[in-house]
Amino acid sequence: GPLSERRLMDVRLGELPAWLATCDISAQGLLGGVQKAWSSYHDKYINVRRGGPAGISMLLAGYCLLSYGWNYQHI
User: Fold this and answer.
1) Within a 10 A sphere around the Cβ of 11, how many other Cβ atoms?
2) What are the average pLDDT values for consecutive 10-residue runs of the chain, which has 75 residues?
């Protein structure tokens, strides 16, 4: 895609000065960038979809190991 629409991690080192020249450095542009970064961080680390078969299976496996340890203490 166009250089102005790429994310920072997708820009090559040689393209960095040209990419920086296309960025909006105004207060409104910086505020929009901070909001976008916060939204991305929130979606990745805070607003994580929970549940599903993996969580239930890990809970069941933990219970089985704990129960096995209680019943066979000599091991």
Assistant:
1) 14
2) 82 89 87 89 79 78 91 76
